[in-house]
Request: fold
Amino acid sequence: MRVVIIGGGLGGMATAVRLAKIGHAVTLVEAASRMGGAIGTVTKGDFAWDTGPNSTLLPAVLRDLFRKSGRPLERELELVPCTPTRHVFYRKSKKLGEVDLPSGSRGDQIAALNEMGKDLGAQWAAYTDAFADDWEALRKDFFERPWSPHHASKHTMALMRSRLTLHKAVNRSLKDERLRLLALYPAIIAGQDPRSMPAWMGLSSYLEQNFGLWKVVGGMGALSEALTQRLDTRGVEVLTDTRAIDLVIQDGQVIGVQLPDGVLDADRVVCAIDPRRLPALQHATHHNLPAMPPLMCHLGLSGELPQMPDEYVVHGDPTLVVRTNNQAPEGAGAWTLLGRGRINDDLVQTLANRGLDINRNVDIRLTRTAKDMVMEWNGSPYGPLWRGRGTVTRTIGNAGPADGSLNGLYLAGAHTHPGAGLPQVGLSAANVAQLIGPA
Reply:
């Protein structure tokens, strides 16, 4: 079959190489001049920074993608564990403590948190342990297969129907303010409101503890480059600088993609962009607002710099993240700052107000607002904004609208199941390949 994929981000590329490997003729349409979407690199002089995520949970998703589309990942990229993340906690201007929290080990996390306060490790372990059964159920019913309530277990359906929010669950389970900040951090930095998210979305803390946090040596841009090369190896036709205008539909069947200069015929179409950008899908997506990226600033630094982990997180309002594993000349530093919340000055000064002053070290400063990134990526890679437990059923699934109104349409990426995040997007591509099947 001829498959046309709209969007050359991670979801589109991962779907394309999987489908090409099992015999389909695949054409990928990308509006930008390069592939990768939010997975990429921005450079200035001898400095290079990841444009989007700089690490990933569930490295098995990437390993499966490369194995199922050709050569194993280890022959293309080097994936290594991140250093322990430093978490610094504030209430207004008062510092409440800090901890270097390793990933991939329950025991190491307990030991690290106990150094910050008596029994904090045991409290945190009890919170994360509670997700073990949830993960087993959701892994089988939600993450590793296209979502449908018809195949879901009782456990999974109970989670989907629960009114318990992440905010309430964290406040019930964790009495220490620092642990609550730690548990809510993944949602906050992703632009979500924990009061509108289901409690099971706290799974990310469990996954980080049990499977680790990993980075690509050389930056996530290397992942984009490796997948771009894999597209060529698998014979995928790639059309860059080509915007998909809309779907072409005939008698409820999607038969192609409207381009600026004509129609690209297809037996199957995969939408790997925000579906709200296609007029034919706006009726099914008008209720799903996107979560927006944080304010981001790439810095080229010189002079004497403090020893830093791969990631340094300042909790409170605002929430600040410092990512240091970018590429810089010897003796220099390439950091990325992210910020959410009340940022009264610029990000560098806001960080200085929280005790890490690098103003004198800044030689290069590239600030990117949420609008800048959404315009560059032709949409937000942060997926739908959670607005209660019904968000799952309101989101278009991997097989298109639930009412079956559009045959031949599939969806991959952050705006479909199982959601935003590098592992989730990779799993969405696997789900679509499973649905379409071999040629």
User: Anything to note?
Assistant: The CA atoms of residues 73 and 98 lie 35 Å apart. The mean pLDDT is 95.
